[in-house]
Specification:
Catalyzes the acyloin condensation reaction between C atoms 2 and 3 of pyruvate and glyceraldehyde 3-phosphate to yield 1-deoxy-D-xylulose-5-phosphate (DXP). By secondary structure, the chain is of the alpha/beta class. It is built from 26 helices and 19 strands. The strands form four sheets. The protein has a seven-stranded mixed beta sheet, with helices on both faces. Strands 2-3-4-6-5 form a five-stranded parallel beta sheet, sandwiched between helices. It is globular. The protein binds thiamine diphosphate, 1-deoxy-D-xylulose-5-phosphate and magnesium ion.
């Protein structure tokens, strides 16, 4: 890491936005250049990587926002928040930036508990306008003079929630109008190339004489002009153009733009002008994702995020080492193979083509591939519509993002018992993205839905077989798998459906049928990839191990057989304990009046911070040592047997 003292002489003097605001305007360009270089340099040296393109694209916008608005008194609400590394640097976290997304380091997203300048916790997209509107109305109701600014990307703007907020924020409530500014950071990119009509609409606003004239005009009108004169001439200037009535004005916002989001001479006077205007303001800025770093500008998809250290001079180079296939790749390969077998298969992603492993499917089956934008609710109900007409939709969606479409899951898919397969990637802890992106809850929130089936494959081959099994099921199914690679079980090309609702034994305890003497005879019931640490722990415990495969329908016969032949049961899952697979087992035991001890291992009832997944799993006691320790603590010393068994 380059030492800030020598490499970033101006940036090292800025520890608060107040210090930034004390700078002469003429120094802001240098500050922005140093800030961009520092963000790039820091990320290039980070072993956990982080978001790159979007951060390089918001450097000038961030400098201008903190320069013009009295932060933190005025509230900046970032959308998604993956583009806030410059914001974090300018708000007192410059020297902590190298710790970003590391265990114990600062978060990769704004967090209220991390800084007063992080006014709203984000990570899931399209929440900023709603939150900023809330802050603006609160200021009004409390009689406080403050601005609320939402900074939302063109991708995030495709979510219904953003329009729910626009629909509400542009009008008065009880005669009160919130003073808020929405800044649309339009870089014509989501993670993948943007999709949908809105993108085309924004392109129209940016194209042709309107933008060209606005761009030139803005430069001439805005430079070194007193505010009143600025506002008058800017209005005159834009009036003179064929200014399209924008959709945003229809929502009650005063629309300004598009202006160049990298030109501080445009940004600052325009923001000053809008800062001092009451009511609902909307500024459309045009930026470039990856700005200032040629490789990222040229390939904004690839440079959306870095996965680890890289040499900026050569960029991201694929490692030559044969990597184990990730679960995502297993899914992507299965999807293409299944599409070959099943012509009714269609696949849907809510703006996560690359992350969900669907690039090849998109290339091979373009007419059966649907990227619906950041629109999880629409994705699920769109799938329901496809299924009503006899097609076989696969919705590839991160566990955490499916939370956004829960009612659609219940009301549109499960209640109608439609054959939709949900491929839930990023199930369980996800690591550097932290609590906002953890897929900890899908077992609990899906198994309680009637008609829903919940499959938990243990490795890469089981993932392929589970997807095949699920795809053949005539109702809604979720198949969940974690981020990254598994144990390396090579997926068999032949697809073999599992016996529906059946688990399998993977180890039998050597303990004789004790019932009251000697070490307890324990059965470990593993759901998903924790089968493997469970098998390791079982060697030390001489425990039986069941690979349950299904949370729903649960293999009740297996549960009852294990309960009757063992002294105690232990369930293990990489999902929340509360309401999870262990709870399903507990319900079966209770329903059959069985009172043998049951230990439920899984993720605790707390949000788990970002960090290295193996370390986090160990902290949660979900590695082999942790499982063994928990079982011994509960069911040992060696010779004692749980009292409940003596009954
Ligand atoms: C609800 C939700 N769905 C999907 C994502 C994944 N995601 C993160 S950033 C992103 C693209 C955002 O595009 P945009 O808002 O234009 O920001 P940019 O990266 O272009 O700066 C997506 C789809 C998310 N964070 N939240
Ligand atoms: C900001 C955002 O939500 C995405 O970029 C997310 O971080 C991707 O996660 P993966 O890296 O697990 O694909
Ligand atoms: Mg964008």
């Amino acid at each position: 890491m380059t030492d800030t003292a020598s490499s970033y002489p101006l940036l090292r003097t800025i520890n608060t936005p107040a210090q930034l605001r004390a700078l002469p305007r003429t120094q802001l360009r240098q500050l922005a250049d140093e800030l961009r270089a520092y963000v790039l340099d820091t990320l290039a040296n980070s072993k956990v990587g982080g978001h790159l393109g979007s951060n390089l694209g918001t450097v000038e916008l961030t400098v201008a926002l903190h320069y013009v608005f009295d932060t933190p008194h005025d509230r900046l609400v970032w959308d998604v928040g993956h583009q806030t590394y410059p914001h974090k640097v300018l708000t007192g976290r410059r020297d902590e930036l190298p710790t970003i997304r590391h265990f114990g380091g600062i978060s990769g997203f704004p967090r209220r508990e991390e800084s007063e300048y992080d006014t709203f916790g984000v990570g899931h997209s399209s929440t900023s306008i709603s939150a900023a509107h809330g802050m603006a109305m609160a200021a009004k109701l409390k009689g406080e003079a403050r601005k609320a600014v939402a900074i939302i990307g063109d991708g995030a703007m495709t979510a219904g929630m953003a329009f729910e907020a626009l629909n509400n924020a542009g009008i008065a409530h009880g005669g009160l109008m919130g003073d808020m500014l929405v800044v649309l950071n339009d870089n014509d990119m989501s993670i993948s190339p943007p999709v949908g009509a809105l993108n085309k609409y924004l392109a129209r606003l940016m194209s042709g004489k309107f933008y060209a004239k606005a761009r030139e005009g803005a430069k001439s009108v805005l430079r070194h002009t007193p505010l009143y004169e600025l506002a008058r001439r800017f209005e005159e200037h834009t009036k003179g153009m064929v200014v399209p009535g924008t959709i945003f004005e229809e929502f009650g916002f005063n629309y300004v733009g598009p202006i160049d989001g990298h030109d501080l001479d445009s940004l600052i006077p325009t923001l000053e002008n809008l800062r001092d205007r009451p009511g609902a303001q909307f500024l459309h800025v045009v930026t470039k994702k990856g700005a200032g770093y040629e490789l990222a500008e040229a390939d904004p998809v690839k440079y959306h995020a870095a996965s680890g250290k890289f040499d900026p001079a050569v960029g991201f180079v694929k490692s030559t080492a044969p990597a184990k296939p990730t679960f995502t790749q297993v899914f992507g390969n299965w999807l293409c193979d299944m599409a070959e077998l099943d012509p009714t298969l269609v696949a849907i992603t809510p703006a996560m083509r690359e992350g969900s492993g669907m690039v090849e499917f998109h290339q091979r089956y373009p007419s059966r591939y649907f990227d619906v934008g950041i629109a999880e609710q629409h994705a699920v109900t769109f799938a329901a519509g496809l299924a009503c007409e006899g097609l076989h939709p696969v919705v590839a969606i991160y566990s955490t993002f499916l939370q956004r479409a829960y009612d659609q899951l219940v009301h549109d898919v499960a209640l109608q018992n439609l054959p939709v397969l949900f491929a839930l990637d990023r199930a369980g802890l996800v690591g550097a993205d932290g609590a906002t992106h953890a897929g900890n809850y899908d077992i609990a929130y899906t198994r309680c839905i009637p008609n829903m089936a919940v499959l938990t494959p243990a490795d890469e081959n089981e993932c392929r077989q589970a997807l095949y099994t699920g795809q053949r099921h005539p109702g809604p199914v979720t198949v969940r798998y974690p981020r990254g690679a598994g144990v390396g079980a090579v997926p068999q090309s032949a697809m073999q459906a599992w016996p529906w609702g059946k688990g399998e034994m993977r180890r039998h305890s050597g303990q004789a049928q004790t019932r009251g003497q000697g070490p307890a005879r324990i059965a470990l019931l593993a759901f998903g990839t924790l089968l493997y640490p469970a098998l390791q722990a079982a060697e030390a415990l001489d425990a039986s191990v069941a690979n349950m495969r299904f949370v729903k329908p649960l293999d009740q016969a297996l549960v009852l057989e294990l309960a009757r032949s063992h002294d105690a049961l232990v369930t293990i899952e990489d999902g929340c304990i509360m309401g999870g697979a262990g709870s399903a087992v507990a319900e079966v035991l209770a329903a059959h009046g069985l009172t043998l001890p049951l230990l439920q291992l899984g993720l605790p009832d707390e949000f788990i911070e970002h960090g290295d997944v193996p370390k986090l799993m160990s902290l949660c006691g979900l590695d082999a040592a942790g499982i063994e320790r928990s079982v011994r603590e509960r069911y040992w010393p060696a010779t004692s047997v749980p009292s409940a068994v003596n009954q």
